[in-house]
Design goal:
CATH superfamily of the largest domain: Radical SAM ThiC family, central domain
Radius of gyration: 26 Å
Number of domains: 2
Strand content: 5-15%
Bound molecules: iron/sulfur cluster
CATH architecture of the largest domain: Alpha-Beta Barrel
């Protein structure tokens, strides 16, 4: 006999029903803010356990001087920035934020110099909402300061939580200064890029490293990617790889070590680097110079040995009072993602993991915002705190403005999906409100609640410029949502705020941005787009409200045709 029995999974309530941070989502562990688990997925068998060590174990008497958020939190004080962060994370109290920062499981990347401009403090850590980073920066062959500042504004508009200026060309100092002055989000850099402008990597010296870090710290950079974890003894493991070292910083430092037959200079003077960063409260983003550049190289010895060193450097930075997050891969098969996240959580004692993607397949250049956001969703669910976006231009060229938008949107989807799955309180509220509006066929509210209202409105109005109780996907007589309402007498989710104003009302029209979207799609003539933007007369699209039976039949066959849009007889 076939066993057809099943038990309903523990779906729980909407996590938003409990703002104290304890109601689980479906399969996620119950929220444990204040413990190494914070919000986390259940471990599948064989995963590395959590570490019980925290940044509190590395407290120093210098904490009383409180030069950094970490020292202030370890000293028991709730900083002004922590209070501001709490306003953006309503499921956490200021004291919970202080404690998470004190343990090193959360950072508040806020250089004191940047706080004098427009920076809004935010946090990165698994107890908080998942954050996303957008990379930008001029290259020697493309873009300039104005274009990069424009991309910064664009990235902020589309939800970037932090921005990294990865410029390797143009006027680096001018570009960085403008970006810091204009940004409301924390700015990260990879300072080694500036260190080798006008000189070869072989000429890099301890003095050049420290001077450049001091300069950028003074300018207001909030976090530095420092590839101090790539050691000489790791390099032989790279030989087995298909694509070697794909991190720019990692490959440059490997060349330096081979040329000079010495240890990584960033590792050698790590304590001096910490001293500079502590003065301005610049956070570490400990770089993964040996991250895999293809699925075949993922989770190999080179990558994991570097991760062990990153764990050691995390402890050394904490002992110096400096905040730390750790960078991660890259390209990882989907089934290896949980192990990668949980091994980092143990080796780096819960320090926030900041991952690039990871891409879960290598054969879709041009679509790597999608291949990577699939991996990013899994990474965040299994422990990553911040996701570095990948744009459609990844591996192919420097992202342009629209690529920045596509990357940000893909990663907002990944971050939000993970937050809902982890059961972070409040994270599903908007989804549920949108579902109610959708069930009520309340199009205006549907669009207002959507992440990109102009795009949603434009796509809807492209086919049907009337906000009525169906859309052009199925048409009136086949609209399952409308039929369900009739069957159940379920009008508008029984929520007064979700009631449509009336059965059919004229669309308010497509905005300029929406018109632009439709122009690029190329499905409509300029005249048709103009009509949608400026509104024509209301179309008659209910078959049961059309007096002429022949015309009613036509409406049933295809609403588009009734609107005068050319379609074939099958309605396709
Ligand atoms: S017509 Fe189809 S796609 Fe449109 S609202 Fe109704 S069920 Fe949904």
């Amino acid at each position: 006999m076939t066993d057809r029995s099943f038990t309903l999974p523990p779906l729980g309530d909407n996590p938003s029903t409990d703002t104290q941070g304890t109601t689980p989502g479906s399969f996620a562990l119950k929220g444990g803010v204040g413990t190494p688990y914070t919000f986390s997925s259940p471990d599948t068998p064989g995963q590395p356990p959590v570490s019980t060590i925290t940044a509190l174990d590395f407290s120093k008497s210098t904490d009383a001087d409180c030069k950094t958020q970490l020292e202030e939190a370890r000293h028991g004080r709730i900083s002004g920035e922590a209070k501001q962060v709490a306003l953006q994370e309503p499921h956490l109290t200021p004291e919970q934020i202080r404690f998470e920062v004190a343990t090193g499981r959360m950072i508040i990347p806020a250089n004191k110099a940047h706080l004098k401009y427009k920076l809004h403090p935010m946090c990165i850590g698994r107890a908080s909402l998942t954050k996303i980073n957008a990379n930008m920066g001029a290259s020697p062959v493309s873009s300039g300061t104005d274009e990069e500042v424009e991309k910064l504004r664009w990235a902020e508009k589309w939800g970037a939580s932090t921005v990294m200026d990865l410029s390797t060309g143009g006027n680096l100092d001018e570009c960085r200064t403008r970006i810091i002055q204009e940004s409301t989000v924390p700015i990260g850099t990879v300072p080694i890029y500036s260190m080798i402008i006008g000189r070869s990597i072989e000429e890099l010296s301890y003095d050049i490293i420290l001077k450049e870090l001091e300069k950028q710290a003074k300018q207001g950079v909030d976090y530095f990617t420092i590839h101090a974890g790539v050691l000489r003894e790791h390099l032989p493991y790279v030989r087995k790889r298909l694509i070697g070292i794909v991190s720019r910083g990692g490959s440059l430092l490997a060349k330096w070590m081979i040329t000079h037959n010495k240890q990584n200079p960033m590792y050698e003077i790590f304590d001096d680097i910490c001293d500079i960063m502590r003065e301005y409260d610049v956070s570490f983003s400990l770089g993964d110079g040996l991250r895999p550049g293809g699925l075949a190289d993922a989770t190999d010895e080179a990558q994991l040995r570097e991760l062990v060193t990153l764990g050691e450097l995390t402890e050394r930075a904490w002992a110096k009072g400096v905040q730390v997050m750790v960078e991660g891969p890259g390209h990882v098969p989907f089934d290896q993602i949980e192990y990668n996240m949980k091994l980092q959580r143990r080796l780096c004692h819960g320090a926030p993991f900041y991952v690039l993607g990871p891409l879960v397949t290598d054969i879709f250049p041009g679509y790597d915002h999608i291949t990577s956001c699939i991996g990013a969703t899994a990474a965040a669910y299994h422990g990553a705190s911040m996701l570095c976006y990948v744009t459609p231009k990844e591996h192919l060229g420097l992202p342009k403005k629209d690529d920045v938008k596509q990357g940000c949107v893909a990663y907002k989807i990944a971050a939000h999906a993970a937050d809902v799955a982890l059961g972070i309180p409040g994270s599903r509220d908007r989804d549920d409100e949108l579902t109610k509006a959708r069930a009520a066929l309340n199009w205006q509210k549907h669009f207002e609640l959507s992440f990109d209202p102009e795009l949603a409105r434009a796509y809807h109005d492209e086919d049907l410029e009337v906000d009525t109780d169906f859309c052009a996907m199925c048409g009136h007589d086949w609209c399952s949502v409308r039929i369900s309402k009739e069957i159940n007498e379920f009008y508008s989710g029984k929520d007064a705020s979700a009631q449509p104003v009336k059965t059919a009302m004229q669309s308010p029209g497509v905005t300029d941005a929406g018109s632009d979207i439709l122009r690029k799609r190329g499905n409509l003539s300029p005249e048709e787009i103009m009509r949608l933007a400026h509104k024509g007369k209301k179309a008659d699209c209910h078959s049961d409200k059309v007096a002429d039976p022949e015309k009613a039949k036509l409406v049933k066959i295809n609403t588009l045709k009734a609107h005068g849009v050319a379609v074939n007889e099958s309605g396709l």
